[in-house]
């Protein structure tokens, strides 16, 4: 469309980057949080922060406690799906659950005493994960994120095309030259360094959702899309009988389950209490890139082995490797942190790209919008602030709401989500009222305050805080809260830069 | 052509045309896969996104918006014929 391919790509990169960058920043930031979704959930349920100084009870013991609880409380009906997830390194409580009229009912137990823990209602880190691929808007939301992901890929490719000196610029960071130059250098360094990560995370994200994105292909092969799963995952279910029968002690099956499986992580009991009960052990996927969980199933009444699946179709294995590389549960804390850092730098790439658009035009307006250019630039500045600082503050406000809202408030988790979403609106309104740089600075200072005052507030209001996490040996919650404080430091570094820019820019260009 | 209409047509080609070719490519892949249908679907999820990217880049690098659409329609027709053939053969 322009004179050369390279110029066309520059146009594409600029405009698609701008319009989709607003959405992509929020998606990448919440996606980065998703790496630690379970840790965040644990932090958001301070009641579950129990003293971990004594060694955990054995897996067998925890299974017995879980089974006893389920037999006493869980529904016994066709299709009831009892679950026991014992506590472990990353998973601080003994969780049991069952299906109640299609809805999952979850209970957290203290792994030491077996007592129910009364946990505040929250959607925890899962809400952030959910947001990053649905925008909390169901399938239409997923489609919008999918289109943004394709644009992200095109942004990466067009970025490579317009950026010919890739190797040289890897070592170039002109901090002292013009502000536009150093923003561009930051954008380039982040993009070049993160290119493999960005391509991987975006592409695997698209591949992961064939049911939503490519339904025609699946329907061409299967009348019922569930048939695909049936072809991939072996089912060892028994037909429901409707006769009561005592469930055997499931922990007694563990030695035989371990003959087929490596590390058993959790157990599912289908049709518990019925003569057709099946006890199914699932292997941990923490040590493999392809996210397939080997499983072994036993008759829940007489203990006979029904079957075990430890082999998978090559195609399933490869597909699930794409899923596994995206969700990153395969490499323990090290890989989680690498993904977290990768995600954070990627957010920086998107944010610097957005800022570049306005910095360039503040210096030398290109008047793409004719007479309205001034107003549109102003709106773009405000949307940049709302997209970047709004997203950061929305997550922080979500964390704050978790600590401020009374633990027993009705519809509590909905209020947390409302606070999260409302922050964007407030951020945009503020950015529209304030001059652009002042908008950035105010919201940066606000974010720093949110990060640093959170532990102080928790301490003053008598809630679990950095100190009590340390005393109880709760490393997960301690990690989350200290990361929030460290993030405050990162944001605080930017405050004097923005203030400096405010002094340096002539008054007429500020507004 | 007015620049705004040119850009509008290209955006449409990029998103709508891009999706049509992506979905058709996936469909033809699944239907022509010689082995098990589960393999057809799973392997079929891996490549379509490269098609989407290619179409999007093509939509904005073609000399004119009509030319961009022309090729998209042509490739879509070829894929549609392959789709029809697969239905006919099976």
- Oligomeric status of the shown chains? heterodimer
Beta content of chain A: 5-15%
Alpha-carbon distance between the two ends of chain B: 46 Å
Q: How can the largest sheet of chain B be summarized?
A: none
Q: Report the sheet with the most strands of chain A, covering strand number, pairing sense and barrel closure.
A: 7 strands, antiparallel
Portion in beta strands of chain B = under 5%
Radius of gyration of chain B using CA atoms only: 15 Å
Give the topology string of chain B: H per helix, E per strand.
Answer: HHHH
Largest interface: pair, residues per side:
A-B, 34 and 34 residues
Characterization of this structure:
The complex is a heterodimer of chains A (511) and B (90). Chain A is an alpha+beta fold and 511 residues long. Chain A folds into 2 domains: 2-45 and 126-207 and 331-510, no CATH class; 51-116 and 224-330, no CATH class. Chain A has 19 helices and 7 strands. Chain A has helices at 5-34, 37-44, 59-73, 124-134, 138-162, 166-170, 179-207, 210-213, 215-221, 226-232, 254-260, 314-327, 332-363, 373-404, 412-433, 436-460, 466-472, 475-504, 507-510, and strands at residues 81-85, 94-100, 103-109, 264-270, 278-283, 295-299, 305-309. A 7-stranded antiparallel sheet of chain A has the order 3-2-1-4-5-6-7, covered by helices on one side. In chain A, β1 and β2 form a beta hairpin. In chain A, α2 (37-44) packs across α4 (124-134). The longest helix of chain A has 32 residues, at 332-363. Chain B has helices spanning 3-32, 37-44, 48-61, 65-89. With 90 residues, chain B is mainly alpha-helical. The chains are: A alpha+beta (511), B mainly alpha (90). At the A-B interface, α1, α5, α7, α9 and α10 of A face α1, α2 and α3 of B.
